[in-house]
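Human:
Class, as today's exercise, you are to examine the entry below, and be ready to discuss the fold:
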Amino acid sequence: MIIAIDGPAASGKGTIAKRLAVHYGLRHLDSGLLYRGVAKAVIERGRDPGDRDAAIAAARAFEPGRYPESALKGDDVAKAASRVAAIPEVREALIAFQRGFARSKPGVVIDGRDIATVIAPDADVKIFVTATPQERARRRLLELQGRGEPADEAAVLADILARDERDTRRTVAPLTQAPDAHLLDTTYLAIDAAVRAAIDIVEAVRTGRKPA
């Protein structure tokens, strides 16, 4: 079984994907970490994330697991990842790895921006997770504060909106809800409720009924 989960930043898709993978005993891939890894490599070389040549070279030399996840969670890496992900050649370089992962047994849960539309368009279950920009900014602010990183509410919201703009307007693999994806709005849902809603969607698809 392949479960594809897409959505904008701080919508809750990553946590939902991890919990679904545990619930169903499937492998999990956060595709955003791939782009963060590329961004981290570019930054380590002292290059700007908007440098196409540097980003493309880093993507083509990409090594899964090169960086621990903790090293990729900083806000600077997240912002840089959004920029490198808009480069078509970077996305092309990472497609093969993601599609190969999607064929893993006994099945997978993959979350990102273009999973249901580009990476695994034949996924058994497709979920598009979203929330209002204001709620997503609130969550990101709490996350940054929890890590002890300086954060300003207005700046965080501006960054969320800017990332939405880049993600939805890029020419290659833009963030969009697949026609056959189930919408899950988490604006007013705590994470446990959001996970239960996602499980209901999966079970509805598996049994041929409509989600609650």
Summary: The radius of gyration is 17 Å. The longest strand covers residues 125-130. The chain is about 55% helix and 10% strand.
